[in-house]
Amino acid sequence: QVQLVQSGAEVKETGDSVRVSCQASGYSFNSYAMHWVRQAPGQRLEWVGWVNTANGNTNYSPRLQGRVTITRDTSASTAYMELSTLRSEDTAVYYCARVGPIYYFDLWGQGTLVTVSS
Amino acid sequence: DIVMTQTPLSLSVTPGQPASISCKSSQSLLHSGSKTYLYWYLEKPGQPPQLLMYEISNRFSAVPDRFTGSGSGTDFTLKISRVEAEDVGVYYCMQSLQLPYTFGQGTKLEIK
């Protein structure tokens, strides 16, 4: 069925990097952009960035620019979000979500909890 | 960045009664091409957010017709005509007019 399946929870230390994957199935991966959204405890949803799955172009939140990298592997129908130089405030559930020609975020991954401890 | 402000932040509603959530944006969400990029999502407990409404007032697939979206420019409202137990969760508005996309603080709906 149509779904996005993310990698499992991660526990990291301050200064580490983390990579979260998001595998798409049931639809044409290249036909939808892939975005990443995160939610820190008690905070609102925050847009992280996106990748054009057809050509690999990216755009990132200015707040995370320089620390976040989003890539994709079209042969595996998988998008990746890497966040470096982790801080405690990066502790959050990270979601991937697709954007198509009509709808924004009509399909979400199940979420990946990233915990950063000092 | 466009700031999205929701009110109230929490609601406690008796089943069968109506509920209303307001969302205001710091600038108009009307695009030159006439679309307004205002979306509503519901985050049910233990689940990722799910799309409810797109472009102000269009219900997404399988969303019950007790949900209605309205508004224009910078002021928007999501109404539930008769709240049911399955409607509990946190409701978010989001703008996708310009990057970075931004969300409201969320409105938590509880059942009395």
Number of strands of chain A: 11
Structural classification of chain A: mainly beta
Counting helices, strands and paired strands, the structural category of chain B is: mainly beta
Sheet with the most strands of chain A?
A: 7 strands, mixed
Low-confidence stretches of chain B: none
Biggest interface, chains and residues, is:
A-B, 21 and 20 residues
The proportion of residues in beta strands of chain B is over 45%
Distance between the termini of chain B: 36 Å
**Principal-axes shape call of chain B:** globular
Query: SSE string of chain A, helix = H, strand = E?
Result: EEEEEEEEEEE
Strand composition percent of chain A: over 45%
Mean pLDDT across all amino acids of chain B: 96
Largest sheet of chain B: 7 strands, mixed
Rg of chain A, rounded, reads 13 Å
Summarize the topology:
The complex is a heterodimer of chains A (118) and B (112).
Chain A: E1 3-6, E2 10-13, E3 18-25, E4 33-39, E5 46-51, E6 58-60, E7 68-73, E8 78-83, E9 92-99, E10 104-108, E11 112-117
Parallel strand pairs in A: 2-11
Antiparallel strand pairs in A: 1-3, 3-8, 4-5, 4-9, 5-6, 7-8, 9-10, 9-11
Chain B: E1 4-7, E2 10-13, E3 19-25, E4 38-43, E5 49-54, E6 58-59, E7 67-72, E8 75-80, E9 89-95, E10 102-103, E11 107-111
Parallel strand pairs in B: 2-11
Antiparallel strand pairs in B: 1-3, 3-8, 4-5, 4-9, 5-6, 7-8, 9-10, 9-11
